[in-house]
Amino acid sequence: MASSGLELLWVSLPQLGKGALQTLSISFLSIATSTIGGVLYGVLRTLNVKWLNAILRVYLELFRAIPVLVWLYLLFFGLPIFLA
Question: Does residue 34 surpass a pLDDT of 90?
């Protein structure tokens, strides 16, 4: 058992490194996915198809109006209900 904070840090360093790498990989994946999704959204909006613009507008306003935390709660608690 570690007797000081520095020893505890030294012992925990491999786990902290793994956590940092996992955080960076998740961040990179989410940035790449968001960029691709944003570019696709922008390209689809420039097509000027009336029904497609209406769908994209509803999608955008829905995600703008509802906070991310609410979406997380809905996915975390609601998704298992639909998948069970």
Answer: yes
